[in-house]
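Kindly draft a sequence, keeping tokens residue-aligned:
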Amino acid sequence: MKYTVKVKSENKPVKGLQLKLKIQKKIYKAKTNSKGVATFKIKTKKLKKGSSQATVSWKGNEKYKKTTKKVKVTVK
């Protein structure tokens, strides 16, 4: 299963950010590409099926502040 996130700042894509997705106590990492898109590859065999709340986070740096967003993910 894949979960994709798009990151923008001032309406422009942000590349090279290392993001984390935490779902059901498992953590997955992905990096944004030149279009600001990060795709998490989630191993569904390790997760319970159904809808789960997940958290996408970025630790921040000198240019962009720390960000956390709660999202809903459905595991099939």
